[in-house]
Amino acid sequence: MATSLSDHFTLEELVYSETAERLGVDNSASPEIVDNLTHLCEVALEPLRELWGVPVKIDSGYRCPELNHDVHGVYDSEHLFGHAADCIPQGLNLRDAFDTAKDSNVPYDQIIIEENLWVHVGLAADGVTPRREALIAVGTPGHWTYQKVD
């Protein structure tokens, strides 16, 4: 049975990783990470799903340190703390989804469209003011170059 984190998102989808499965990496989330993922769902993912008006597939949510290394994530990725998810709005142009999210009141720290594969949504850590930084990333995981978008 799935563990609901919000109306439309489950713990299982936010910790699932095809890479972890293939490499035998345990990507289980601690209670603190589950709390962070719940917060991510409630303040960012659910509002974005409503704003976009379509279901959202999570390509990558929480990543344990080993998995983050295996996918070439940055050393301080918010995925490590359950503060970020890579989203694919189903049936919606990613650039349109990015632009809509960028201009919304969702309290993101960073929103990044990465090589037109997904929209990364990251929250700031508790007590940190969100930067509301919007970026376009080009390249491959671990080798992105970023361009700020106003």
In short:
The chain is 32% helix and 21% strand. It is of the alpha+beta class. The chain has one domain: 2-Layer Sandwich (Muramoyl-pentapeptide Carboxypeptidase, domain 2).
Task: Outline the structure in words.
The chain is globular. The longest helix is centred in the N-terminal third of the chain and has 22 residues, at 31-52. It has 150 residues and is α+β, with helices and mostly antiparallel strands. The mean pLDDT is 94. Helix content is 32%, strand content 21%. The protein has helices at 11-15, 18-23, 31-52, 65-70, 94-102; strands at residues 56-60, 84-89, 110-114, 118-122, 133-138, 145-148. It has one domain: Muramoyl-pentapeptide Carboxypeptidase, domain 2, CATH 3.30.1380. It has 5 helices and 6 strands. A 6-stranded mixed β-sheet has the order 1-2-4-3-5-6.
List keywords for this structure.
150 residues, alpha+beta, Muramoyl-pentapeptide Carboxypeptidase, domain 2
Estimated structural class:
alpha+beta
CATH architecture: 2-Layer Sandwich
Mean pLDDT: 94
**What summary fits the major beta sheet?**
6 strands, mixed
Shape annotation? globular
Report the CATH topology name: Muramoyl-pentapeptide Carboxypeptidase, domain 2
Question: How many separate domains make up the residues?
Answer: 1
Percent of sequence in beta strands: 15-25%
Provide the fold topology:
Layout: H1 11-15, H2 18-23, H3 31-52, E1 56-60, H4 65-70, E2 84-89, H5 94-102, E3 110-114, E4 118-122, E5 133-138, E6 145-148
Parallel strand pairs: 3-5
Antiparallel strand pairs: 1-2, 2-4, 3-4, 5-6
